[in-house]
TrEMBL record:
Protein name: Uncharacterized protein
UniProt keyword annotations, A-Z: Membrane, Transmembrane, Transmembrane helix
Positions of transmembrane segments: 15-39
Native source organism of the sequence: Desulfarculus baarsii (strain ATCC 33931 / DSM 2075 / LMG 7858 / VKM B-1802 / 2st14)
Domain of life: Bacteria
Matches recorded under InterPro entries: Multihaem_cyt_sf, Multiheme_cyt_c_menaq_reduct
Gene3D superfamilies: Cytochrome C3
Amino acid sequence: MSKQEQGQKKSPPDWLFFVLGIVLASAFGFWLTPTILYAEKTQPMDFSHKVHMEQVSDGCASCHTFREDGSFTGIPAVANCQECHSEEAMGDNIENPKHREAERILAEEYIAKGKPIAWDVYSGQPDCVFFSHVAHVKNAELECATCHGTHGETDNLRPYEYNRLTGYSRDIWGRSLLGLGGPPERMKMDDCAACHRENGVRDACFVCHK
């Protein structure tokens, strides 16, 4: 057998290069796609849920309340913050420098100027979705952590990530590019429907889409 024939036999088949190319392209795509698809921005100021939870008596409901008609107030307004905070920052009473800076910003930039804080809501749903907190928290007696996970225990606010195409929070789709997982890692319609079915609740379209 000639050396040329031996070299030809040792050469890998063409399909192997094709498969290898597909694998490498897919891996590169999975690594690059989140960077292209999602953007991030910082919140207007930092906030420690951990510190606040240690000082309130009614947990999440101390700040995230329901109105008399049962509607949910959502993120507290600056007026609610003023029940404990004032135009004069607490300053040296706060040891953590990040918390101290957040207190300064709250006092000087928002309370003193009467400006609302333009928070970016991690769990914000599309406009076509109707979600009733009173139905889930009061009637179904679900814990906030069921959907929001450990958000109420965090000491700082992470960057807000949003889809460049839709503008929706990445928390809706979830961290997995394939949309794997479930609450509290994500808040997709499939998760809501699955929870409704498991608990014998109607999951017709008009229940959530008004």
